[in-house]
Amino acid sequence: MEFLNHINSPADLRRLKGEDLVGVSGEVRQYILETMARVGGHTGASLGAVELAVALHYAFDTPRDRIVWDVGHQAYAHKILTGRRESLLTIKQYGGISGFLKREESEFDTFGAGHASTSLSAALGMAIARDRRGDSNHVVAVIGDASLAGGMAMEAINQAGHLKTRLIVLLNDNEMSIAPAVGALTGYLNRLKEAQGYHRFKDDVGDALLSIPALGERLHHAAKTVKDAIAAAVLPGALVNELGFKYIGYIDGHNPLALVAALREAQKIKDGPVIVHALTTKGKGYETAEKNYYKWHATGPFDLKTGNLIKSKPSAPTYTSVFGNTMCQLMEKDARIVALTAAMPDGTGVDLIIEKFPERAFDVGIAEQHAVTFCAGMACEGLKPVAAIYSTFLQRAFDQVMHDVCIQNLDVTFALDRAGIVGGDGPTHHGLLDIAYLRPMPNMIVMAPKDEGELRDMMHTAIQHNGPAAIRYPRGNGIGADIKRDPVKLEIGKAVVLRDGGEVAILAYGSMVQPSIEAADHLAKDGIETCVVNARFVKPLDSGLILALARTRRLIVTVEEAYLAGGFGSAVMELLEENGLQDKVKIVRMGVPDRLVTHGDPKLLLAKYGLDADGIYTRVRESVEVLDDKRTTWQKVRG
Ligand SMILES: Cc1ncc(C[n+]2csc(CCOP(=O)(O)OP(=O)(O)O)c2C)c(N)n1
User: Fold this and answer.
1) What pLDDT is recorded for position 291?
2) Which of 84, 92, 246, 282 is catalytic?
3) How far apart are CA 627 and CA 624, in angstroms?
4) Residue 343 Cα, ligand 1 centroid: separation in angstroms?
5) Cα(71) to centroid of ligand 1, in Å?
């Protein structure tokens, strides 16, 4: 690697000649490909943003100038150029570098992210801080076209136009469906001329920049999705004319020199925000990824020569696919059921539903808040919406779940995929808060299946139930449970005793049931008999059963794959306190303590917090030993 071997920071890059940037970009792209083939990651998204990263670090004096990447999944080239070339091989692995950007990881990572549509707000805040300091550095937000359509980004645009502070927005547009018709485009090109700096810009870089590759073909795709409709509404007419943004574009986002020229032009704009509109191709430079850009947004390891993904051995189906298929079956029987995703059709299994019921399944884009209230509206009119949203992303819509759904007791089902520890995506993506944020909401029912078969029962139960209900289930494969039988309606608030006996009761919630059973088997071999309960519901709790256990056992151990604060164990303790039984039985809560959980193999992370069969076994044993010691001491004192 002629260039890359000598680039250990953006300062090294800036010492190169402009014409070298194409060569640098080629090497960065090749390096990403070779590395991702080995370890997997956000391959397609990052291949599409190589030239953006090269041009940004060349045109700006980073880290003094601040670059804020939205989400951060597309910023592998940025990582490579900012001293993390070697460590890219460790990305998303335990102890390795993050898959997103992280302030602790590098001074060039000005703002951490993982969730979308935050960059404009953060960058605007930085720009205002700069103004207050009387400083002159630039602040650049880099945002994708889908993320730009997210609510927060829209709110930031609204304020940025009003504040009129210097802010550069680099739009990474890999869809390019801006205008609905060629006629509108003509008007659009004319409006470009209104943008300050347009003439100089044109002189600097020549007409080539204004060429619009494959426009005719791409326009056919215009405004086909909600995302496009929103983009069409704001870009560039409304942005330029009504919202106070200057506009520079279109730019070929894979021409580093053109990008540098456009960014330098943007630097000259002193009297308000400017948007630089770059057209890019997801998966750029790798044919398979370009063709299947959706699938290649993120991948596991692959064969670089053939582009074939290296698949792990087939095991039980994923919870996601069980959800999608079960929805299709339930929707066939009940025309009132509709399905919904917020920009994650394949991640949630809603893609299967869209295929089968295109009229009854919706992708609203990166708009979780809207998604929930949209469901509430449909429920008001007698539909039965099922919103499939990752646990971590539903955090965005906390108020909508309460204000629009729960207060009005509307019939919306929330299917929370990726609940628990998700692995390589790390702290921004772990779904550890949902029990705590859903449990206090009046009218809400909250449950978690012990396996993929019970997921089907819970879906049926939640949809049958007339009111808000949430089901949380983990990322990845089920345990091989029966998914052929018809789903049954469960009694709401009823737990199941899976194993009885002894002085210890393990109350397990959702994904923790299976390891609890294994732990109980192991404990039995040591002569410690335990009762194991599949709690099923955290709200309403099976209070009859839990209170009975509290009266008859010495030790209750609660186990959940979630933050302890406000979680399942907390719910059990509250119940005991409400019934005056808090001193009757010893309680041990197992779950995730109050700290950030890093990225890494989920198995390893679960083991770290004792949330596997071994961890549960050890904790129960230790707790029993403490109780035994106490009993012996007490017996001695009493003589
Ligand atoms: C709030 C939120 N919802 C959903 C996601 C999942 N997600 C990650 S990247 C992405 C697509 C982003 O598209 P775009 O901004 O156009 O960038 P591109 O990947 O095309 O470069 C989505 C939906 C997220 N990160 N945050």
Assistant:
1) 87
2) 282
3) 5
4) 7
5) 7
With b for 16 or more beta-carbon neighbours within 10 A and e for fewer, the 207-235 pattern comes to: eebbebeeeeeebeebbebbbbebbbebb
Q: Does ligand 1 lie within 6 Å of residue 385's CB atom?
A: no
Give strand pairing partners of 556.
505, 587
Q: Which of 554, 47, 604, 39 is nearest to 287 (CA)?
A: 47
Active site includes 368?
Answer: yes
CA of 255 to the centre of ligand 1 (A): 24
Strands (E), 51-153: 66-69, 139-144
Which of 52, 118, 147 to mutate to test ligand 1, by most ligand atoms within 8 A of the CB atom? 147
What are the 10-residue block averages of pLDDT along the chain, 639 residues in total? 96 98 98 97 95 98 98 97 98 98 98 97 98 98 91 92 94 56 31 37 36 35 39 59 83 96 95 93 93 86 94 88 98 98 94 96 94 98 98 98 98 98 98 98 98 98 98 97 97 98 97 98 97 98 98 97 98 98 96 98 98 98 88 77
Q: Is 140 in the pocket of ligand 1 (CB under 6 A)?
A: no
What contacts 472, CB < 8 A, 6 or more positions away?
Answer: 391, 416, 419, 420, 431, 434, 435, 446, 447, 448, 510
- Does ligand 1 lie within 6 Å of residue 172's CB atom? yes
pLDDT digits (tens, 9 = 90+) for 567-617: 999 999 999 999 999 999 999 999 999 999 999 999 999 999 999 999 999
For the question of residue 396 being annotated catalytic, the response is yes
pLDDT for residue 141: 98
Q: How far is the CA of 400 from the centre of ligand 1 (A)?
A: 21
Residue with tokens 């509290």: 550
Cβ 147 under 6 angstroms from ligand 1: yes
Distance CA 476, CA 417 (A): 9
Apex 181 CA angle, 180 and 186, nearest 5: 120
∠ at Cα 126 (123, 132), nearest 5°? 145
Cα–ligand 1 centroid distance for 325 (angstroms): 24
Say what the pLDDT of residue 241 is: 66
| Helix boundaries (H) for 540-601 | 543-552, 568-578
**Token duo for residue 128:** 């205002």
| Ligand 1 atom, smallest distance to 71 CA | 25
What's the half-sphere exposure (Cβ side, CA atoms, 13 Å) at 264?
A: 15
